[in-house]
Amino acid sequence: MSLSCELTAWKRLHADHPQMLEDLGKLHGVDLVPKSIARPGATMRIRCARLYGEQVVVTDLLWHQGDDDRTLFTVETGHRVLRAGQLLQRMQAQGLSADSSQSISLLLLQQLLGQTSMVLDRIDQGLTVSSQSLRDFQMNVGTNRARGAEDLSDVDSHLSTLNLPLSFVLQSLDDLEQAALRLRRAAAMQPTALPAGHVDGLIAQIEGMQRRARFTLERQRFHRRAAGETVAMSDLNVTKVFTVLWAAFIPGTALINWYGQNFRVMPELAWDGSLWTQLFAVLVLTAVPVWMVKQSGALR
């Protein structure tokens, strides 16, 4: 149940179900069950999002952080999200102590923030592709390369699927911020091997990522509204076409219905120029409603 790790200040555990989590807590003498109301020193739940190929994988990580001289406990409840090898490389690069649980906490939070950033990068790429498709559709309206509104169905579907990963990213960033604030409070309460500026820098990075994620969410909503308005405008253009066709064909239809009544007395049929007079009347009756439609502004 315990994963091998070269760092004695960090216990990396894995639990697939609640009973295993309780057994791990009894084994190590630590309450690993997260509470609905988080207290200082209690186990908290961190929502983790990372890329797995082309998919976004979301899992919960249980985080129990104590004083600097106490062991950090992490419990992965699903997909493995922590990388011990990367942690050791960062520790050597930044010159942090391997015996400090708070230093390990800092580096793990940086690692989780990096994974969340990669997910946000992928969402940004998807938004860029969708916005380019929407822009091409709008630029080609009224040209020979114009497409139908059904071509926007894939764009709208892709934009709607970004709601869920974006919500996971925002929740993950909120959890990481809470963990970083706990770490800063714990480091301020007692002397520690962790430089204070490192934690402040981590919190600043998280806050910057939160602003970026919220901007991405607003951007996604804007593009969804634009796609919906484009589809509505396309439907309106189709309605305009049928309106003009109705205005053009209704006079001729009325004339056909009139002379299809088989009246016994229709003297105008014997008049000279009767055919041309009737055709001229149909043209006038066709032009008048089309002109009225245009004057009303319905063809703009």
Automatic annotation (TrEMBL):
Residue ranges of the TM segments:
241-260, 275-293
Q: Which UniProt keywords apply?
A: Membrane, Transmembrane, Transmembrane helix
Which SUPFAM superfamilies does the record associate with it?
Answer: Magnesium transport protein CorA, transmembrane region
User: Where is it predominantly found?
Assistant: membrane
Q: How does it sit in the membrane?
A: Multi-pass membrane protein
Choose one Gene Ontology CC annotation of this protein and give it. Answer: membrane
Q: What is the protein name for this chain? A: Magnesium transporter
